[in-house]
Structure formats: structure tokens, C-alpha cells
């Protein structure tokens, strides 16, 4: 069908310039550019390099074949990353099948790591006198492993479930009565859908409360407003130059984080065709996709043109609403279409809903994208060769986007999986083949997306393994009690896998030294082939570097100084790095949180290994890059804000408990958390409160989280 050859197509036609859809000169093409076909080579004449056939081959009705470009050093690096991903998948499978059994039996049989602790659980003990030597290892005995003397751990995969722990409930019992819509039973008895629905009252149509919340909701809930004179005026004023600015803003930000639309095909094929036919009167699925791209492009431009947090914005309505409402008017015509564009439309609509803090709508659209992807893959299951084409690679990317989102909905809220994971063996990891634009080539989006996929696989497998060890279903809402030493024995090899991801699987420009997650690697200055320059709105800037009159960035990294002018890195580099690093630390927190439970509820049975686990967990809470500038100043670009707010609240609760609970305070005083822990913890609390406070006026879930944090830390509104 026609839709099969447009937005999702792998067509390598050259991108148009702002003046119109003309062919780029050779110096303007990307590093992996098209080249003369074999026919023109043999005739020794100039080739216009059009696909699927150049002008000469069309004229003489000849077969048109292009040679594959020779792989560059960057291509070889990406191939190496993908090979390591496949190797890691095998290791994880072996770990699941064999490693747990070995770890468990060896720990029971004599390689003891269950140790008799010194009596450090006494509340009246001296904190200052405790050192790491207080946790003295001892050989196992029948008494240690007997049912009456078993140390219990509690595994949960979400911060929401952690709030149901008895010790946390005790902390919150005086706070929850003042929190609207929540009591102690609501923290443990609700499923994910109830949590999403209860995140706050329905956004009102009337202009009450926050300006942004009410007006954005009014526009979202009144699609007929798209026909208002102002909307018509906006649509009629679109020019080739203005739509290129919107498209570039989308592809330089959202599509680098979730590369599910082919920039080259959209700019060179879909967009010119849509504008030629008349965008306003076009009801095709391509026009729906185009409007969604424009809507998210406007969100990206707003994020860069007015940095400084969400509460600093006082615009009359949410950016991109005119385009989004036009897309919603057309979505009904293609709801059941079995195509790549159908998956893309649902996914992009969900992303836009999340920028409006409509979390339930985000989930519903994401699940719809997963269902549409399954329908598409069930058709390709009988012909897997289709996935080897350039368009098939876009299908793979859309599949993994849906899979990543599903996994985190399952971990954070216990939402059921749709069954999309059964297609992993068919789809495999995308190879990012086919021609790409210059911007996409130098943005390194492939490495970022591949790293996301691996980290998602690790998170899902960690959750399944720890839940299986605990003998209960893998669910973020239900808790998992387990006798020692099963969970400690399982955590060790999983932590090694996570460290391997950070130390060896990540490409060099995405790696960091763990004690300081706020620093960019030294190679960041040159990863784009030139010094990184700050710009006011990089999404609207040309691809080439600014003039030499503009001073280069001298300090590359994240900062806890939220009052400083945020640096605008090209291609959302700061968001890419912040997402990967923060997800790494939340995954590490997931692994080591059972040690916090034991310290809170069984302090008299703590061992040195348990204390080390507590220290690792506490350090995993510190200074997440996503809460630091410049990433936190552009929250509209950060996917899944609901998840991050939940996890930030969870980290704040743990850090507060470390101040209030004697056993945790004594572990900190022993020095095993590191010399700078206290200062970093104070900074982390400030950053976390800034994050939640910035969103509380526009996001009902953040408003609820603020009520909890305000009560814990004794803050005023």
C-alpha cells in the first residue's frame, strides 16, 4: 500500500533543504551517503543517485543497483556493540538457567557468606564508635540457617511498592492523612491502573488551578477547538521552511531518544508529498503522523527556547496542541490499520500525552502501539526476510521502543505485559542499516538506543530472577520475602552483569566513572566531529557549527547548580546520557533494595555483607544526572516523567530513613558509604525536592509526591 513506502520507508533519497525538496550537494551529504549506481559507473557518467532507480536507469528501463558503502570505523564500533549485546543475551540466559542454582547450593553447602553479626542493632549503641570491622564474618552453622534464625529480605521492583513496607508505613502514618486521596491501605492494595487513575483528580475543563494544567487539559479534552480561527490560521501559515524547522526539532530530540521514524524518508518523501496534496485536507495516516511530528517538534522548540523548569512557563496552552488535535481528528480513520505507520502514530501520541502529564493516556497509547506492533509482526512472522530491509529495521526499532516502555510499566506499576516479548527471537536487535541523514549519523543515536535495549533486558531479567528466587510472581506491586542466602547469592552475579554493561558494553562517549555520574567523558568534546557549542535553540540551528565568534563549551557535564544558565547540547546529548546513567542507578537500586528492608525490619541479624549491600543501595540513590542541570531544565524531553518522579520520591524516602533509623545511621558512620556521602546526600535531597516541586503545579502525581516529601522533610508549600 502507499503507506508502506513513506514515513517508515528506508528510502535513501536526499533530504530537502529549506528552500524546497532539492538534491543536496555532495559536501552536504551525511558520512554514509548514496553513490553512483553500477549502470552510471559503467557508462562513466554522472548519476543523480535517486532511489529506487536513478534517472538514467528509468530512462533506459535498466536495473538500477547501488553498491553498499564501505564500513567506517564508527560502523565497525556499532557492529562490535551489537555482537556484545548478543553475547550478553547468552550469558543472561545461562545465568537464569544455571547460575542461580549454583549460587544457592554453594552458599548452603559451605562457601558461607551468611555471617554472625556483632550486636549492632542496639538502638542505644554509639554510632561514632562503629566501623566496618563491626560486621565480623563467621562460618555458617545449623543455628544460623535454621528456620527460627533466618534473616529475611523483601524484594520489590518499584518505589510505589516500597512505600508499603511496615517501617515506611510507620514513617508515613502521620503524613498520609493529610495527603488527598491516599491512606495507608492505598499504598499496598492498589493495582497499577488504580494508581494511574488515582494519581490526581481529573484535569478540569474550567480555568481553575494551574494555568498550564487547566488550559492544556481543556484543549486536550476539546478536539473541536482545532477548528478555531487561531488553529486554522496556524495551519494555513505553514510554509516549507516552518515545517522543516518543526521536523528538525523532532528528529534532533525525541526521535534520537526513540528512533522509530525514518528521518531520511520522512523529509525527502512523506513531507513533500503531504504538502503537495494539501496537509489540511489530507486524512491519511501519513498526515496523522506528520501532525504528531509537528506537535512534538513544537514541544522540543519550547523546551530549548525557555529552559528553567516547568513551573517557569506561563504560556496560554501546551506547545503543539494545535497539531496534536489535528492528529487526533484523523486517528480514527486508521485505528485498525496493520502498518508500521499505525505503530508510530500510537507511540508518538503516547509520548505527547506524557508531555501533558496525562499518564493514563500515555499508557493506553503505548499499549495500543504494542498491540499494533504484534499485529504487524504476526504478518511478518511468515516472511522474516521483510525484517532485513531498511523498512524492516524501522519496524525493529518500533518493536524495541514498545518493549522498553512495557517493561518499565511492568516494573514500576505491575502492569501486565501484552505478549510482545514472544517476538524477541524473531526481531532481534536492529542493525541500523540503510542510508541515514548527516544529523543522525553524527548524533550517535544508534549506540544510545542499543544501550537502552540491553539495559531493558537486564532490568527485566533481574526482576524475573529475583522474583523466582523469592518464589513469587514477578510483580512490582506484590512483595517477595526470601530466606537468606538466596537473594544475596542471586544479587552478586546480577550486579556483575550490570557493571559489565557500564564498563564494557557502553561506547566510550557514553561511559562514566561511577563515583561521579555528573561528569561527561573527556571524548565528549569531539564526538560530533567538532567542538560542542552552546546555542539558544539548537533544534532550529543549522547542522554546521556556529561561527568562531561563539565561545566553545569549556565545562562539559551535569551540575547541581540549577540557577546557572543551562548548556544546550546538540542532539539532546545531555538527555541521552542522563537517561542511561539514571536508569543504571535505578536498576542498581532495584538490586540492592532488599538489604534496606532487612536493615529496617531485622537489624539484629545484619551481617557485613548486608551492611555492604545497604551502603551500595544508599550510594545508588545519590545525584542522579536526570535531576541535575541541564537535563532537569528540559523535562518535556524526558520520557516517562511519572516513573522518574516515583523513583526520586523512593530515593528521598530511603535517604531520610538513613538519617532516622539507628542501624542505617551506624552503617553510614562506619565509613563504608564513602567520605563524601553526607554532602552528596544533602545535595541529592535538594535536587529531588526541586524536581518534584517543579512539577507539582502541573502534574497530579508530582503533587501527591510533594505532599509525601513535604511531610517527611517538614517543608512548607
Give the topology, please.
Elements: H1 38-43, H2 55-60, H3 73-109, H4 142-145, E1 152-155, H5 159-162, H6 166-172, H7 186-189, H8 192-197, H9 211-221, H10 229-236, H11 240-251, H12 254-257, H13 263-277, H14 285-305, H15 321-331, H16 340-355, H17 359-380, H18 390-413, H19 424-427, H20 438-443, H21 445-470, E2 480-483, H22 486-505, H23 573-601, H24 608-620, H25 641-660, H26 662-669, H27 677-695, H28 700-713
Antiparallel strand pairs: 1-2
GO biological process, one term: DNA-templated transcription
Region (Disordered): 1-28, 206-232
Pfam families: Fungal_trans, Zn_clus
Spell out the helices and strands N to C: HHHHEHHHHHHHHHHHHHHHHHEHHHHHHH
Q: What characterizes the major β-sheet?
A: 2 strands, antiparallel
**Tally of discrete structural domains:** 3
Can you tell me the residue ranges where pLDDT is under 50 for at least 5 consecutive residues?
A: 1-33, 96-151, 199-215, 223-229, 523-555
Shape: globular
Q: How much is the radius of gyration in Å?
A: 27 Å
Q: Helices and strands: which structural class?
A: mainly alpha
